[in-house]
## 1
Amino acid sequence: MAFIVRNALKISHLLANNGLKSHKTAYIAVRNCGWIRDWKPGPYPKTQEERDAAAKKYNLIPEDYETYPEGSGYGDYPKLPAVGEDVRDPYEDLDYHFRRRNYGETLNIDYDIYTSDRHNPNETLRYTPLQMVATFLGSFLFLYFLALTDTYFDLRNAWQLKPKQYPKPGVVHYTFEPLD
């Protein structure tokens, strides 16, 4: 960790002396230093000792440590259950209460999908998807049937309007002559 801090200080001094305009990539490297190197998954564990070391790395006991299939591209990252933020206990004393997680907690590989403002894999719906589609289609088909019935039988009697006055030869609807 001291190595990362030392390098970050060197780069920040370099930026202060040379200006930020020509070294924007160096500034980004200082801002994100250490993150990729520290948390990047290792190679897929092949022996029991490698599995135990990977379980310790991710704060898991060896019995709970299970990896994704070899060749999936996730390396030694553990296969964790999909648990949304909304399911976790809201009264638990957490380090980061807004996201309901603790510092250093190993996350699911798809954690960004299971945040509280997105999908919850543990949610049980009140109605089945078939009931939801049937309700949607049923209500709109009922309104469509009412509109067709109204059009066919001419049931519009709430707003009595006079017939349209289209110009025809020989018919005078109004004149501009003064009344005597």
## 2
Amino acid sequence: MSQPRQSRALIIVNTDFCGSDGEAKHGTRKGARREAEKLSKALSRLNYKVKLEHNKTAKEIEELYQQECGREHGEHFVSIISSHGEQGLVLGCDSEPVKLTWIFQTLASKKCPVLTKIPKIFFIQVTG
């Protein structure tokens, strides 16, 4: 009897931000790292294969979601993003935006067939 495939979770938490000049921007999001680590442990206990990523640029965030389209998934896919942002977008640690619609379209069945018929659950926490 084969083991069921593990459901996957991708957690991205950005706590430190800088502008294109390398100067600190937006302030540090204190406590966000600890919260993400707690979420990671909770999902692991629920038998999710968790990928926890810290301080990713906008380009790196986009690459992480594109990579999910080539991975095996179980019954669910959970995405958690904790960052600065505003309505409809999150910021990479480089203070560049990633549109949420881009993420949703990237994981849609047309572009990501491995996630067809697999529930996708998104938790997005942004501070302005």
## 3
Amino acid sequence: MEIKENEYSIEFSQEFTVPAETLFEAWTTPEQLKKWWHPMQDSLTNVQNDLQADGEIIYEFEKNEFRVTGKYQQVDLNEKLIYSWDWDFSNDLPDEKYILTIGFENKENGSILRVKQEGLPGEEAALPHQDAWKTALESLKTFLDGSPSKNNSVESDEGMNDRSGGYNELPEQSKVGGA
């Protein structure tokens, strides 16, 4: 996994042994998404993914502590998604709004997933998102490939209390991934 970071966005790429079409299905099909994506140690109960421009995204979770909503800005089947990514919390945490760009690219012997998350207020705010994306993409890799990534360039810091891959945030700060 590669990570590029600047003040307001973070980018990730992950290689998979499956074609981009299979990767796209795992990212967008409700039943597959429910099997691999568990942010903040929660499980999806309802997924609405209207895969068209202006189509709605609604993800609801078992614990009812938050939900994710959004709207597709661009949908190129099996190639690219751009959408708003809004976290609505039922507790005292402030709601958060981002833009995600997800690329699905075929390559020899598999595919590459590219993720860009925009709208972060700065580097410190990006840290829990980095770790959460790392966890989510590893979970997706295990789901699709049956094994964890061997080419992971993002490592946990030594000596950290490792709740989400190295950054020592509170569980409610881990926004994207989770196991």
## 4
Amino acid sequence: MTKLLFVSGSLRAASSSTATCRAFIEALGARADCNLAEIGSLPLYNADHDGGAPVAAWKDAVEAAGGLVFVTPEYNYSVPGVLKNAIDWASRPAYESVFKGKPCLVVSVSGGALGGVRAQSHLKYILHGMLADVFPCQEVVIPHAPKKVENGVLADEAAVSFGTRALETFIARVSDDVRPGVRSQKPAGGQFPGSVREIPRMAERRA
């Protein structure tokens, strides 16, 4: 089964990005082994040290995944600092990092009408710079996302359905992909390292 690592670009408890991750994970069900990354514990990037256990666990989680699914909000016309920080840690060594050849799908959300398209464009540009394999598909953008969250899960049926179809195609691509340079998944029976967490439903919370 394909292992997908979902990465939310927001740390808020009532984040619509995380709510969107939960909705996609629920929609996929048994079609993929899904986990949600924990990037909030990572220190600020500093090339003078290796970041210790949190960074090592984050890199291991990226390497173990068959593919990554980023769901990002848009902050000031671009990606949130916390997400860029996590990416910077995992991008070392340059051009030979765990992101090299790693299949990635990008989704964006926002409270406005554009759905975070500028952040999505910037994130894809960043991923290309690390030689990640950015999945080409119709852009999955979710406008007015905070208003569409119920009990900690995105409740926009049309958006979830559209995004899930993209994810199903992404999974098929990841499963069939045998190109050189694409890092393999963790062996059967292996577990994702400590930088992933359970995805609890948030009772009566709205983003």
